[in-house]
Amino acid sequence: MMKQDEIFMHQALQMACMGQYSARPNPLVGAVLVRNGHVIAKAFHAQAGKGHAEKELFSQYAGTMEDATLYVTLEPCSHFGRTPPCVDEIIARRIKRVVIATEDPNPKVNGKGIQRLKEAGIDVTVGVQRAEAISQNAGFFLRMLENRPFVRAKVAMSLDGKVAMHSGESQWITDVPARESGHLWRARSGALLTSCETVSKDNCQLTVRHPTLPSLLPKQIDFHPPLKVILDRTLKIPASARILQHTKVLLAVGHGLSEQKKQHFLSQLPAYHQVKIVEFPLENNHIAFGAVLQCLAELEINDVMIEAGPTLLTGLLQSKQIDELLIYIAPSLMGANTLAMQSLEFSSLSDVLRGDFSEVKTVGKDIEARMLISDWARTNNAIIKNTQEFVCSFIP
Prior knowledge:
Blueprint: H1 2-16, E1 30-35, E2 38-44, H2 53-60, E3 69-72, H3 86-92, E4 97-100, H4 112-119, E5 123-126, H5 130-136, H6 138-146, E6 150-158, E7 162-165, H7 176-188, E8 191-195, H8 196-202, H9 213-216, E9 227-231, E10 249-254, H10 259-267, E11 275-280, E12 282-283, E13 286-287, H11 289-298, E14 303-306, H12 310-318, E15 324-330, E16 338-340, E17 356-363, E18 366-372, H13 375-379, H14 381-391
């Protein structure tokens, strides 16, 4: 029975991945209905406010379920949120057995759904491929358990570790396939974070541009761009910056900035702008990054991707506030008249910042390497590695 449970839970995890570009802020969830060793229906959660995976599955199959087993990657909800509780319909369908990969860390659920199913006389098994299910929703679990999102920093560099020429020229170090892969990582993220220095230098937009993204979205589901977050302690960013024009932007400024300066800045933006200025405390004359993460967690952001210059990356690496480095390495040598990825200073090998590679692969001519940095990520290294066969199976 255990081997069969793993096979069908594997399929449920694959189904969950179908919502990886659209389900946020909700977790990825997949469900598979099995009778006599055969799959009779399968579904996934596509978007917040839409039907949960279980609801979508029930809409596909109207037959009897009394002798069927339901496989679901996350504990069914037992409360009214954006949609009614799933456990009520599972009970009403008189399903014989429910196999759940992992408990839901949301305090509103967290075992209550499992208890309801057991009280209704349903045979419940919990923990089949739990590690894979948790890693598939690492950001959601971190938000629920530690009140912060998962932080991923993206870097594109040459083989000798350079990110730009000394003049600042950096477009393009990597080839098209690597850049397209980076855009898919953007699409999975709830927020994209950069600094005012990067915006001022590159006039970047941090948009999601990928030729096949529309085909990767569930049917009749629109893509919602990630929130843009810009660290700008004294509000130096030009009001004409392209990143401020069309999408939701959170400008993180230092505490104590005058109301007059903030209102004057906002008055220079187009009438249709979606920019919000939020003050944060300072640490060593820099915006307290932990406070920014807490704010993003309260905005239901599960995953943050940082795309910024060496100064910000160095500070966050030094303070160990990055969970994962997403590194694209081009087969090129840029030489001495260049800027390095970071200038971390250590006095001995025992002090250096170490991590674990969770995945290394070629993307076109370049290398994509994922390096786990934080204690949480490294502790769960095997868990995160196991996720790749599911997450990447739906990425071209």
